[in-house]
Amino acid sequence: MSEPPLRADARRNRARILAAAVEVFDEHGTSASTEEVARRAGVAVGTVFRHFPTKADLLAAIMKELQGRLAARAETLAAEGDPAALFTFFAEVVERAAGARTVVHLLAADGTDVGVDRQIAGLGEALDALLARAREAGAVRAEVRLDEVIALLTAACHGALAAGWTPDLRHRAVTRLLDALRP
Amino acid sequence: MSEPPLRADARRNRARILAAAVEVFDEHGTSASTEEVARRAGVAVGTVFRHFPTKADLLAAIMKELQGRLAARAETLAAEGDPAALFTFFAEVVERAAGARTVVHLLAADGTDVGVDRQIAGLGEALDALLARAREAGAVRAEVRLDEVIALLTAACHGALAAGWTPDLRHRAVTRLLDALRP
Amino acid sequence: MSEPPLRADARRNRARILAAAVEVFDEHGTSASTEEVARRAGVAVGTVFRHFPTKADLLAAIMKELQGRLAARAETLAAEGDPAALFTFFAEVVERAAGARTVVHLLAADGTDVGVDRQIAGLGEALDALLARAREAGAVRAEVRLDEVIALLTAACHGALAAGWTPDLRHRAVTRLLDALRP
Amino acid sequence: MSEPPLRADARRNRARILAAAVEVFDEHGTSASTEEVARRAGVAVGTVFRHFPTKADLLAAIMKELQGRLAARAETLAAEGDPAALFTFFAEVVERAAGARTVVHLLAADGTDVGVDRQIAGLGEALDALLARAREAGAVRAEVRLDEVIALLTAACHGALAAGWTPDLRHRAVTRLLDALRP
DNA sequence: GATGAATGAGAGTTCATTCAT
DNA sequence: GATGAATGAACTCTCATTCAT
């Protein structure tokens, strides 16, 4: 189960590949070629496939990392105790999605599913904490449920990526969405 | 400038191809093969390419048709004079998107852009009429602008397509979204 | 079940691909690349895959054709009524195998099996007729059974392909083998 | 000219690699990957390549070892003086081949030649002794020559590997073959 | 000497697009 | 106009071999 620690150069390459993949997939979507990822990372294709035996594995790894980062951010916010933290988090995620397809794919792997379903669960827990806090403080309506929050977040991220969403429009749309959650 | 009228069989083929393409792309996404479209339409690939020199052209044609249908529906609703028609339309479109990727692609061609940008304008006009009517009747907040409505609609459609949106969740999410527009 | 008749050029290409494949696989074994087959046939790879969606399909087609030819030859010999026809056929097949790996693969698909099993059955029937005739005439021992004949034939073909089997040696080895079948 | 004696661990590794390679190639054929061999041997690929600079070298080494073992067995049998020892040896080798591709590759490296030709010579000497003994005792026909024996043995081993050779069929086929050598 | 990560040519396969029939 | 066979670039993935650690 536990794998031996990677050699220093291997770990470095793994990281570079992951970083390159995030960039490439953010720019061209997940249909971008593995070869392009390798090129951007400055390694040979074989190296990419050594680290991620399948393109799906690469995608999954990216999503996992992203999910980890988002969940961590959510936890940090939750720890700070601000009842409106849910709104902050929501807005931040959408903002991020605006420039990166990856966030969108994490929230809704439409078709090219890569086992993201389980990862969203991890994020869900973090979100749930934020939601609970907000509910207690009366910052959101009592009947708002977790799946709705995720749904709206997903929707907003997808939308944010759509052509024509200027920063201003994005801001107004998110505001509307968050208003929908308020009492 | 003006092209000669198509022969009867050509016109018939064009329609069949379009219909088949809608089906195929709804089911498998826009990455489905042209050959599959041809097969479903009962014609040979060559015929598809004669009518639509490029896959992108085919996509654009589909979008145009869809836009036409949606705009027509919006106009019909507007003509009926119900102040809440905007909400009806909104819900209907999301419902449709839930089972068909095409609507989503129309509202936000993320990447595989096929000149949809201009088409959305046509739909915008129809939506604008609905919005104006709703505003006059006080059914929506005064400050809600057209681009926000489109943004939310886009977002909702994308979300509706996401894995895990059950009909129930879809209903609740749309309700929330529409609440966000109400005074 | 029945496919439409191929267009003239398609039929021509199919034949050329098959012929090229026989040559290539005879020379370099079944691990030779599909690209090489295409090159030899004077077509593009895509064409090979259009006719034979999988490399295994190509192999199977070759085997089927070969089996057909061998069975036909066996039937011809059987029709002529010579009690020693079994021996003639045996020697001919081995002779052929000496210069072509394909025969060997047909008789014993060792590993890279491509559904040849069923094809050998067809050949088996033809061989059985020859064997029956020989037995009646007392040309082979009474207890010799079909599977043994196939076994020895397979063995001889494999051997004939082995490095170092000169024509002379081949002749003597086959003679010994056939002696083993005689009373 | 003479190489320095290997370090103890190096000698041990060499042996383990060889043993692993025999297993792996017996199971999956010579197209099995070098990495698989290394894994089975419990060493890293680099180590395999240090000992055998090329895959072909590894194959050749295996064959040499096998040839040594078979020759030793033949000599033992020859020393015992049984006139029928040739038959015993023949049957034993075929039996072994039935479960292991390696024997077959030794006797007839069809294509992936790895310099086995010369190795068979060594085995030939041992076989020649058995043949001579059998001839003296009148156990085989006077005109049977060494190359024929090798040819039949090769053939039988190849055949034994072929799909569909049950132990029973194998026994009958070998019996037939040996009968062919008897007066 | 051993390790195992990196390399990169090459394999099988797919698909938008072209063009002879 | 319609057909469907041919094209060939592109894609994912494998593996013998090299070389930094």
From TrEMBL, chains A, B, C, D:
Listed name of the protein: TetR family transcriptional regulator
Residue ranges flagged as DNA-binding region: 33-52
Pfam families in the cross-refs: TetR_C_43 (PF21597), TetR_N (PF00440)
Superkingdom field: Bacteria
SUPFAM superfamilies: Homeodomain-like, Tetracyclin repressor-like, C-terminal domain
InterPro entries per the UniProt record, alphabetical: Homeodomain-like_sf, HTH-type_TetR-like_transc_reg, HTH_TetR, Tet_transcr_reg_TetR-rel_C_sf, TetR_SbtR-like_C
UniProt keywords, alphabetically: DNA-binding, Transcription, Transcription regulation
Domain HTH tetR-type: 11-70
